[in-house]
Amino acid sequence: MYKRLLVPLDGSSNANEALKTAIDLAQDWHAKLILLQVIDITQFSAQGLGGGYAAVIKSLRDTSQEILEAARDHAEEANLEVAMLVREGAPKQVIVEIANAADSQIDLIVMGKSGTNAFSRMIVGSTTNYVVQHAEPNVIVVNDLPEPHE
């Protein structure tokens, strides 16, 4: 059914649950996972960080790589084909740009209901909401709910 699943990751529990769901779906459909981590550079400026800008960006790139490598390891344990992408920019815009790009051939986006940046969600709306509204592929939204009590 779906052959290329885009999975935006930010290290949050919701993103981790989305990854688990994407792995299950990809196994069922023999699909490839495209793991995406967006470095949100919209929250600070080079001027505001002074000479520390390069160090902050390097640290964020390192963290992005760690998030993607951990996700890749889980997907490869499930014998799935995986690609990893790191991009910089506004996460919601980058996700939509990649999903809508003709050459990406994304069939489905699997993402968490909310991520790591609560302040941004309050001010400008959620990344998930934006992606649902603007992405051409279908979107599955996964929620990290606590286990139900018996």
Notes on the protein architecture:
Strands 3-2-1-4-5 form a 5-stranded parallel β-sheet, sandwiched between helices. Strand 1, helix 1 (13-29) and strand 2 form a beta-alpha-beta unit. The protein has one domain (4-142): Rossmann fold, CATH 3.40.50.620. It is an alpha/beta fold. Helix content is 47%, strand content 21%.
SSE order, as H and E?
EHEHHEHEHHE
For the record, give the distance between the C-alpha atoms at the N and C termini, rounded to a whole number.
35 Å
| Beta fraction | 15-25%
CATH architectural arrangement:
3-Layer(aba) Sandwich
Keywords: Coiled coil
Protein name: UspA family nucleotide-binding protein
Domain UspA: 1-142
Coiled coil: 61-88
Features:
150 residues; Rossmann fold; alpha/beta; 6 helices; UspA; Rossmann-like_a/b/a_fold; 5 strands; 5-stranded parallel β-sheet
Give me the secondary-structure topology:
Elements: E1 4-8, H1 13-29, E2 32-40, H2 46-49, H3 53-77, E3 82-89, H4 91-100, E4 108-112, H5 118-124, H6 127-134, E5 138-142
Parallel strand pairs: 1-2, 1-4, 2-3, 4-5
